[in-house]
Amino acid sequence: MTEKKTLLIDDAENLYYRLLAIKPSLAFAYLQCPYHVIDYFSKLTNRQIVFRRFVPQFLQGYGVKKVTTFLDSSNGKNAVDMHIAVFLLSKSSFEQYENVIVFSQDSDFSPVLKYLKEKKSVNAVQHRDMPQELISLLEKETPETTIPDLLHSMLVNSGGFININRFRRHCSRYHYKNWQKTGCFYTWLFNLGLDERFFIDLKENIIMLRTPLLQLNKEFG
Which among 6, 14, 51, 218 could disulfide-bond with 106, CB atoms 3.0 to 4.6 Å apart, if both were Cys? Predict the structure, then answer.
């Protein structure tokens, strides 16, 4: 008889933002090192893990592994949650699984999990906690700050320029306090290592990718 497995559904959008609010390096480590998440839940359930991670398209630039399902984030804030629900409800069989775990701290998947328990006879639960053991492993994986890389990824996925206020909303409270201390948002950015990839237009309050800017100047200047 084949040993049953655990199906682990990873709500990467939700967990990425939760970790970003603690410390950006944790969020990037979480995206780039899924094996820590897999190992943790494998030990927790004492079962082999089948891992499915659901990630919005704008997070694609962080070396996310092949265990990921990329989604179009233009469908709104709850698009990832909807894709997870549809994925679970559309599976015809759960015979190979002893457990189904949805790893998410935000959305309430109770109706879907209740359906799986009653109709598919599988132990389906939502894991809301971010274990300290997992955080400790992630802390060992990344440099202190990767905010310039976050900015670069946002610019690439938005066509080459973004409003500064939009970028601020994507930064964590941890870093927001740091740039308040400097007294100047631009000084804070340059202190973080903003380099030749970027251009800041003070008048228009926007940040642009320098490479597309140079290409435009060459073509139309």
Answer: 14
